[in-house]
Amino acid sequence: MESFLQTLIAGVLLGGLYALIGIGMTLIMGVMKIINLAHGDLMMVGMYIAFWMFTLFGIDPYLSVFIAAPILFFLGVLMQKFLINPVLKVDSILPENQVILTVGIGMVLANLATILFTSNYRSTPVSYSTSAWYLSDYWHSAPIELSLSVTGTVSFIFAVVITLALWFFLAKTDTGKSIRATAQDIDAALLMGVNVKRMRVVTFGLGSALVGAAGCLFIPSYYLYPSLGGQFTLIAFVITILGGLGSTIGAIFGGLILGIFESMTATYVGMGWAPVGRFLIFVAALVFLPGGIASLLKKKGVRR
Amino acid sequence: MKKYLPLIVLILLAVMPLAGLAGLLSSYILHMIILVIMWSVVGMAWNLLAGYCGQVSFGHAAFFGVGAYTAGILHSHLNLSPWWGIPASIVVVGLFSLLLGLIVLRLRGPFFALATLAMGEVMRISSENLDWLTGGNLGITLQRTWVDKTNYYYIILAIAVAAFLVVKYLMRSKIGYYFVAIREDQDAAESLGINTTLYKTIALCISGALTGVAGAFYTNYMGYIEPSVVFALHDISIVAIMTVMVGGVATFFGPFVGAIIMVLLAEVVRSIPYLGAAHLTFFGILLILIIIFLPNGIVGDFQKIKRIFGAGGAGK
């Protein structure tokens, strides 16, 4: 029971971060209708920014969120403007050219990181990286002993705050509303005077910034190496499918479910099998819930 | 002239090792040619599924790896000659693709692409963890049958010719037209009475089996396989895509052209000091350039290249 609850807590904390990665991808997918396969590699870039800020200037990784997110935003904008946008217009046999293009971008990013920073495993040895809060410290007669790791909890809180800020941006601001309009119906948005082209650029930047921020939140408790992007791209994709394409709320639930499922697999089946568990969830979602969690929410009448 | 071109190329390829006897062909060059032909087999397989049938797969490493491990496991567990792996891999990978198709063919377009990518990764992780079957990260080592490369050359050449004929025959038949119809518009194809699921499954199984045979050959040729090599995302799945993208999507000769360019590029970059690790950067940049400027590949956009360089442009 105790280990079950502990695993559950770890899963929720992990899931919050996963949700942040997933939201970035689902935003891009909703507006651009393409899958950004360089997503995980952008996160790797964010992590390296946090790593070097910490190593060179001693800046705490959590503060690097405010450095990495703007840098990643501009990187995303540049990618969209000069690489992806031209391809959207090109006529070719395969419609998946943009997806293959993002693979190319991801490959270049990962390989450049290997050359510039070597493929060594890096981490930011922050002073609080192994500390945790214990339940028994606050409640002496607690029947069970549970702990919250400091890094996991702080990252989770950051992720929640960023998600809320994003929700506010999408729901309340003009730009946010335009982005949502573009995602729903490009032609109608155009007719309503939305600058669809700019919205695409902004969305790509926003998605990149989110995943860059997620990278900074991951680095206090994770190792960093150049090829880590691929697995996070997959995570983001599974979350997107699980949550329903283009649905932000779906991505949040998807992230939490995946996080819990993964930490359960790691505890009860074996560390190495967590990625296979991911695939199982993915297949289960496709077979039993093809529209994702968003379709369930829609049935209940909740608007996203 | 154009009609006999494949035959001439084939005869040239068949007599080429004789040049090796005369000392004109080093074993290194023969090795590269074998790699080129092996990659064109994988490219043709990918082209069948993606170029003709429109189902872009990012996980051909799964088929390649399962084929390679079929040969390896036959040797390490049953003490059979790993050459049995080539016929065995057709069956094993064919069945594997069939099962996989039940899951991934529910998806379309980019979602299919990512599902296959995920499955490639899952196969890699499974083979790393199933120690009793695959030997885990240590991989499988076996004794190569011949030291000389000429025999390997003829075997892979035979496989390539067979694969070429399979693809060509398929694309000449009704099934080929169904494939193209599915690529162009799946809903329209469905409404015209084409059983899209069936034909997509056929494309996936044949494509998978061809890739699996190339994988089984790889085991025999290299004599050593491990999960991170045969299930590699970038070095197998993406290179399979690139041979076709660079060479020419939905063309018969695109995969050959692409394989030549990819193998040469990889070798050239690896031989430059300090840049050896950077071959993926060059692959990536090449991929980006090709997609932006020649979206249908060198063979597919040959007219465009002619126009740009002005040479022979009047001929068209």
**How helix-rich are the residues of chain B, as a percent range?**
over 70%
Q: Spans of chain B with pLDDT under 50 lasting ≥5 residues?
A: none
Q: Give the quaternary arrangement of the chains.
A: heterodimer
Order of helices and strands of chain A: HHHHEHEHHHHHHHH
Largest interface: A-B, 46 and 46 residues
List the total number of helices of chain A: 13
**Main β-sheet of chain B, in a few words?**
2 strands, antiparallel
- Coarse morphology of chain B: globular
Rg of chain A, please? 19 Å
| Class derived from helix and strand content of chain B | mainly alpha
User: Helix count of chain B?
Assistant: 16
Mind telling me which CATH architecture of chain A this is?
A: Orthogonal Bundle
Number of structurally distinct domains of chain B: 1
CATH topology of chain B: ABC transporter involved in vitamin B12 uptake, BtuC
Number of strands of chain B: 2
Report on the structure:
The complex is a heterodimer of chains A (304) and B (316). The model of chain A has no long low-confidence stretch (mean pLDDT 83). A two-stranded antiparallel sheet of chain A has the order 1-2. Chain A has 13 helices and two strands, in the order H-H-H-H-E-H-E-H-H-H-H-H-H-H-H. The radius of gyration of chain A is 19 Å and the shape is globular. Chain A has one domain (2-119, 146-303): ABC transporter involved in vitamin B12 uptake, BtuC. Chain A is mostly helical. The two termini of chain A are 35 Å apart. The longest helix of chain A is centred in the first third of the chain and has 31 residues, at 2-32. Chain A has helices spanning 2-32, 39-57, 61-89, 97-117, 135-138, 150-172, 174-184, 186-191, 196-218, 229-243, 248-268, 274-288, 292-299; strands at residues 132-134, 147-149. With 316 residues, chain B is mostly helical. Chain B has one domain (27-314): ABC transporter involved in vitamin B12 uptake, BtuC. Helices cover 75% and strands 1% of the residues of chain B. Chain B contains 16 helices and two strands. Chain B has helices at residues 5-21, 27-52, 60-78, 85-104, 109-129, 131-134, 150-172, 174-184, 186-191, 196-222, 227-230, 233-247, 254-271, 279-293, 297-300, 302-309, and strands at residues 140-141, 224-225. Chain B has a two-stranded antiparallel ribbon. In chain B, helix 2 packs antiparallel against helix 10 (196-222) and helix 2 (27-52) crosses helix 12 (233-247). The two termini of chain B are 16 Å apart. Chains A and B meet through helix 3, helix 4, helix 10 and helix 12 of A and helix 5, helix 12 and helix 14 of B.
